[in-house]
Amino acid sequence: MDYSPKIIKGRVSGTGWPIDGHTLYFSLWDYDNYGCYHLHTWPKEADEAVMRTLYEAEEAEGMCCCDTMQEFEKLWKSGKYDPGGVFTVALDKVEVLEVIQQRAGPRKIGPAAVDRAVQKVETDVVCGDECASWAGAVSEAAVKEYLIAGDRIYFKGDDGMEDVLEAVLGWEEIVGYNSEEMSKAYNDLAWRKAIVVGIAPADWE
What is the residue extent of each domain of the chain? Predict the structure, then answer.
């Protein structure tokens, strides 16, 4: 059986985003230990609030591909908007109204089998001569897009648009681009999707 996440219908509150007060659909996933709700879909009447929420969230993170809300709205309504990641909401910010789908499919480790999952990060990855490996913990996990240029990996939305284009295309190629041309060139790069897992220091308390 293929894996399917749990999907719920819930009312959002207390986030500070325009989606507060709206009823949306969210999914819960094994890969981040059901740590937060992933925005799944939403009814037509919530579309405006979701659009403004994603714009404000991207602006706050400095990863928005548009300079203004008007540009973002035009992109959104054209159906060409690509978030390049997953928008999540804390568990305590969603009141579950209905369970639409229960989790289904294989799970590698049952929840009662271990006390916790600890990620062992090899020292060659984190740099240092003090020990052979480091104990880490998953800090976040999301579907993101990435590309590799030279000896560096870039994540869509996490790195500056101009920096990525310069690394991939060269400054001479993009120096005359306006913001619309810059955005198109950025989105047309050979991005690949992956589940990106962040590793942070382990909390042993």
Answer: 6-101, 119-201
